What does this fold into?
Amino acid sequence: MPKGIQAYVNIVFSLLENGANKAQIRGFASSLRSMKLVLFDCDGTLVDSQQMICAAMQQAYAGQGLPCPPTRRLLGIVGLSLEEAFRRLADGADHPVDGLIAGYREAFFALREAGTHASPLYPGARDAIETLARRPDTLLGIATGKSRRGVTALLAEHDLTDRFVTIQTSDSAPSKPHPGMVLEALRETGVDAADTVVIGDTAFDMQMARAAGARGIGVAWGYHPVADLHAAGAALVVDEFAAVAPALERLWEPDAVAADA
It folds into this structure.
């Protein structure tokens, strides 16, 4: 059973156990038709991990005897799978992609274990997640270019693991902007694409959302310029986490859905 529907079934049983009448249960069950899914990107959206990413990149390139691209270019590929990221950074040159990937992973793990480079939540991120997680009609998920090990450690570090019912990573899906991560999240939760919103800081996130039939909300505090988010099809762009919930409400209004159809 999809996770979203299972969650609702559990709540209905709880209502029965607490003496809810039939009208209350029917009213609650009818909200199944409007179940919502919010998929968050990680790096540059939930957490500011640029110090970790850039430090690991520098070590990976140094390990292969190659000059590291400038920070601006490194941040421009955040969100892609490592294979796709290193291929784009190579600009057609014959770089040892497998060696760079292995070096990056080793460096990133060592930096995380050493605790010398933090990946803090952006201001307001926790409050926004907690607010959305309390909504009975909304499920939360992750769609990230990070590895499963990486995102698991990140969510555990910030005590957010149980807030997300579906976690999609580059380990089991094609790199963004391919829609595979979103489509798998829809399959797992049973939510329709029209009721799904991807929140991210890159053009890759917005392109992925549109390719899956979902909509995208861009965030202005991440690693891609706001103009790129609009050009990639963002339905809205927000300047702070406090604006995320109101932006979702705007997109989920019936008139907004009809306009996008």
